[in-house]
Sequence to fold (269 residues):
Amino acid sequence: MTELTIGYLFKKRYIDFKRKNYEIFELIDYVVGIGFTNTKKIKLCNIITGNKANILASFINKEKNEEEYVFVEDDLDKAIEEIGNYVNFKKIRKNKLEKTHKYYIRSKEYWSVVCLTDEKLIEKLENENKDFDEEEFEKNTDISSMYSSIKKTIISQDEQIMQILTSLFKNQKIVNSNLDMDLIAKLKENILIYGSTGTGKTEILKRISKIYKIPLVIEDATSLSETGYQGRKINDMLEDLCLAANGDINLAEKGILVIDEFDKLAEKS
Fold:
């Protein structure tokens, strides 16, 4: 059975903040849709108006198993009455959106969606969990002064200096941000540097570590092994990084690890 219905379209998502998981309903639009129950007995709404036309939204339910988009049915007669008994969807939509808050949470007493009393909390949660803003990063760099300083002593490697410096500068900005640890891990970049002996690969990294005042550990790949049964363990590099930071764990976490000469491993039989 299908029926024409009217109501609120929300986007359900989860925000992690200070080790707590928040279920948030963000208002997307006030829409018209066709409600129906599928073969799995799940009630859905096919949205037919607005920017989200043609998507399927789950009716909000007691089981809390809705999909990403959630539909909350409204009373059509009351909606018409609110605008002076005019049957005009544009006016109904405008009236509803003007009176409706942006963020909602699910009520504990009732399974409908209820308004948050403090929307600033959600804005704070969003700011704490927003993705890395590349444009904002570029606006706030003093990378040019670092570049000028390094190229004074390393000749004919201007492009390479800028590429390495840009990547490491971005990593430092990410590490020093308030982003979630999982997001930091995804955004950080590893760098592969290759070139002939004597071109300044290692020296560029040493200069950058001095500029940032962060520890740098360079380890020969041929001395490392997975188990440490022969040679050094991978964990030894982290211990060296802590020593280079004089035992300051916070500083060590921002340091640079370099695995050098790993191409030599390919020369072994």
Observations:
- Residues 3-129 form one domain.
- The longest strand covers residues 20-37.
- Confidence is low (pLDDT under 50) at residues 136-140.
- The chain is about 35% helix and 25% strand.
